[in-house]
Amino acid sequence: MDKATFPRDKICGDAISGKAVTILRRIDPGIIERFEVATAEQSSVWGIRFGAPNGKRIDVPFRPDYDPVKDPKQGFVSKRIDFDNRLVEEVKQRDNIELHQGISIEKYERTTDGYLLSNADGSFQVQARLLIVANGAHSVFSRHHVGLEKDEKHHAGAVRAYYRNVTGLHPDGFIELYFLKEINPGYFWVFGLPGGYANVGLGMRSDFVSRRRYNLSKGMLEIITNHPEFRERFKDAELVGKITGYGLPLGSKQRQLSGDHFMLVGDAGYLIDPLSGEGIGNAIYSGSIAAEQAQQCLANNDFSAKTMQAYDVRVARVLGKEMEISYRIQQMMARPWLVNFTANRVARNPNLIYMIAQMYADLEVRKQALNPFFWIKSLRKR
After folding, report:
1. What's the burial of 202, exposed, middle or buried (CB within 10 Å: 0-12/13-18/19+)?
2. DSSP letters of 336-364?
3. Per CATH, is 152-249 categorized as 3.30.9.10?
4. Contact 202/223 with Cβ under 8 angstroms?
5. What is the pLDDT of residues 218-253, one digit of tens each?
6. pTM for this structure?
7. Residues in contact with 72: Cβ distance below 8 Å, sequence separation at least 6, in sequence order
8. Taking residues 160-189, what's their average pLDDT?
9. Which residue of 128, 153, 184, 221 has the fewest C-beta atoms within 10 A of its own C-beta?
10. Is 279 helix (H, G, I), strand (E, B) or coil?
């Protein structure tokens, strides 16, 4: 059941990571194949362009010596109105799924066999032995039935807008992340889209936003209008629509994700990456884990909290360590002198660029980034 009727827009950065692509291929290789056919709806991404506070720019490919023509796609940028609708179209093709659109579940009544779900006036009801909650960052179920609360140190605020005719985009679709001194410890992004569009935004941890009383929309416009680099790139750009904001519950601390007859997935489980702000990949991954847990529950007719705990354990093992490392790197990135120092060394050290590229595919390599001796050893190499 979904409260929306598709296609519908969703406020997002629109980046579909390699993690999301990998899991979708694992679920059904045809999903990505069919998505790639719709070339007008998405642009391929082959790496990330990082910008340090001192103005140093570094291009880090997702894989060394990549070939955009021959290699399998590493990621995409696609408007959520298109991407989400394609996923819904995939759901419609499955004869074992009954999809209800335009139904907003407002009541969750605990029963002996699970949950009775109802819309506001009770005209729609369904009894569920197992409830998989995927209703986003503002999930009423997560807050009122599970007790998850907003923690500003583990939450981010962000704004985004669509612009047309932004210049200087990378020819191979590298997404751009800029850690500018004006917005430290936040970051400014530019993600290229098909048709001359770009998703442009600004994000910052919520405790810093509150402490400074920082206006994210004004901050983003200030960068676009006055920053020496970006005012040139945006001088002929056109704002399409309006600047919109959203909250990101970060997965930088462990939370309860399941209980008797339910599991939380994606943003409803506060599983957004603390460093990149990515939610799509972790949502798809947690959904995949939840599906496998559901198979076990159905096979054994056991939906108890004790049995469901296996879902929490597996999410923590697969995603938890990754998000813990991201949070610690996020804290390091809040020190401009450290970011500048690293950027200066990385820019003239191919070995380090290769190592950073490996971090996206290898969690063990990413763990090493927290070890000072690793950086000392790497910085000495040429």
Report:
1. buried
2. HHHHHHHHHHHHT-HHHHHHHHHHTT-HH
3. yes
4. yes
5. 999 999 999 999 999 999 999 999 999 999 999 999
6. 0.91
7. none
8. 94
9. 153
10. coil
